[in-house]
Amino acid sequence: MTIKITKGIYQLVEEANQVVEEISVEQAQALHGQDGIQFVDIRDVRELQRDGVIPGAYHCPRGMLEFWVDPESPYAKEIFQQELTFVLYCGGGLRSALAGRTIIDMGLTNVKHVHGGFAAWRKAGGQIEEYKKG
After folding, report:
1. How many helices and strands, by DSSP H and E, does the chain display?
2. What CATH number should be reported for the domain holding residue 17?
3. Domain carrying residue 86
4. Within a 13 Å sphere around the CA of 47, how many CA atoms are in the beta-carbon half?
5. Which residue pairs from 57-60 have beta carbons closer than 8 angstroms and sit at least 24 positions apart in sequence?
6. H or E element at residue 21
7. Would you say residue 5 has pLDDT above 70?
8. pLDDT by residue (tens digit) across 64-103?
9. How many domains does one find in the chain?
10. What pTM, to 2 d.p., does this model score?
11. For residue 133, what are the CA distances in angstroms to 49, 51, 58, 91, 122?
């Protein structure tokens, strides 16, 4: 028996992109390093170890995002309690769209995500550094 999916990932991402501002890698590069802008890397730690990171990005694994954003959560992180513009990215731009929609639904308002994610950043010659645990 095959399970019937009523809404697939691409439809979910398309719907998320109606809510979350999707920015180009060029727009992301222009924002990188500006005051009030916080890049958030939602990739799995193995991706960071393998591919590197965007300097200054805060690592928040996708599976912990809601728990780290919610100030009532025992796992809340101070960075998400600040008035910042959060620029989310993942490997290719799908997870970051979904994650962006989720945190907008939670009440954050200044949220963007990078079209094409880390792969697009790398292809465009964006600054990358080795991942350092910590």
Report:
1. 6, 5
2. 3.40.250.10
3. 9-123
4. 17
5. 57/89
6. strand 21-23
7. yes
8. 999 999 999 999 999 999 999 999 999 999 999 999 999 9
9. 1
10. 0.94
11. 9, 14, 12, 19, 21
